[in-house]
Amino acid sequence: MIKQTETARLPLSRRQILKGIAAAGAAGVAGLPAWGAAAAEVRELIVLTGTTPWLPAYQKAAAAYEAEKGVKITFRPFPYGGMRTQMTNATQSRNAAFDIFQLDEPWTGQFYDNGWIKPIDEIIEGYALDPNILTYDNLPLWDRQQRLGVTGGQVMGLPINGNVDLFVYRKDIYDKLGLQAPRTWDEAIENGKKAVEAGEVRYGYVTRGQPTTGGQSVSYEFMHVLYGFGADWFTVDDGSLVPAINSEAAKAAATTFRRLLELGPSRPQTVGQADCIALMQSGQALQGHFVAAGMPQLEDESRSSVVGKCGYAVVPAGSLGKPVPASGVWSLCVPAGQVPERQRAAAEFIVWMLEKKQQEVFAGAGGIPTRKDIDVSGAGALRPIMEGARDSAPLARGSIRYVFAAQMLEAVEPVIGQIGSGEVEVAAALDGLQAKLAEIAKASGFAK
């Protein structure tokens, strides 16, 4: 059974972040071999990671490894926008700066397809995925021929943080106004309007409307609505991907997403994940949806004015009639170009991190566990968040994971951001995006 720890209340300071970046940038990583060179016995692993809300939980869980195995774990944290660039540069320049990569879900297709990741089941002979590890729509399992994740594929990496979006709402205001927890996005919108009209909050709804580069941001929040309307980016026809983002269902989803953002700050294209968390913490917002890993901050007594006042649930449903969350899972992987000794040491650490004991520590510190057998009953104030993530996992569909995800997101992020901010007309914007996706899929060999 997990127990809540103080780590969930210790986000990284700016000084800590900058210190980590500087350490990684100063003359590379001292003591590591050149790409492909011989390696001595491994006593330290250099782990690329992100300045994510759940990094303290990751560090907490990993802290016992040195005492237990005699191998020091040194984290090199980078802002989200720089992580993929760091890993790509290290790979293409044959610079063995890192022993472990941390891949956001949209990056997996590119890294796996390019052969930049060494499969764990090739490093550790006979390794089989623990059946208690969640696979999130086959995220870790890669088929080289089909160029996608499938049941029975090779184990490429392991999911370390099981992010999905949750719906969070102010229970106290809901009770005061006699509102019911929404089952649909339309009901959430109506509840938001009522709370604003009653003068209880400034904003009726918050979620990310800010586009990003190098990954997914606003498009990820949009996917929880898109999938709930039964829509998707593509359909499959005779083995080819056919863009479907201008379907009637997708247009309805995009219109609903805009209506959600209209209940938030006047310039939604400037609202990022940290802003959503801050608006909920300060009591300015009634409700919203964002990643589960960010929600423990709402229960931080040193920073939040809404401790104990929030409810957490699976995201609402669209016209499909059932909620369909999008997974936003982070995976730990081994760079293909590292020397065998370091690959083996890295793979052993990754497997260790996914064991039940470490996942319990991780969850107790605010991370979202990726195992089915974690008892969250002792998580204290974090228990409803962990239960919401647990209940969402079997409903979740994969987010953008295509081999061409990087090119796709460059097209998708700004358009969804413009739709959310009201800068463009929905149908015309989606028609334009449809054409762009057709070009990208064809250029990557996935469409005729």
Describe the structure in your own words:
With 448 residues, the protein is of the alpha+beta class. It folds into 2 domains: 6-161 and 329-386, D-Maltodextrin-Binding Protein, domain 2 (3-Layer(aba) Sandwich); 165-326 and 399-443, D-Maltodextrin-Binding Protein, domain 2. It is built from 16 helices and 14 strands. The chain has helices spanning 14-25, 55-62, 65-69, 80-92, 108-113, 120-123, 171-177, 185-197, 218-228, 248-262, 273-281, 340-353, 356-364, 383-392, 405-421, 426-443; strands spanning 44-50, 72-78, 101-104, 117-118, 141-143, 148-149, 154-155, 157-161, 165-170, 234-237, 240-243, 287-291, 310-313, 330-335. The strands form 5 sheets. Strands 3, 4, 8 and 14 form a 4-stranded antiparallel sheet that branches. It has a 3-stranded antiparallel sheet with strand order 6-5-7. Strands 12-9-13 form a 3-stranded antiparallel sheet. Helix 2 (55-62) packs across helix 13 (356-364), helix 9 crosses helix 10 and helix 15 (405-421) packs antiparallel against helix 16. The N and C termini lie far apart (52 Å).
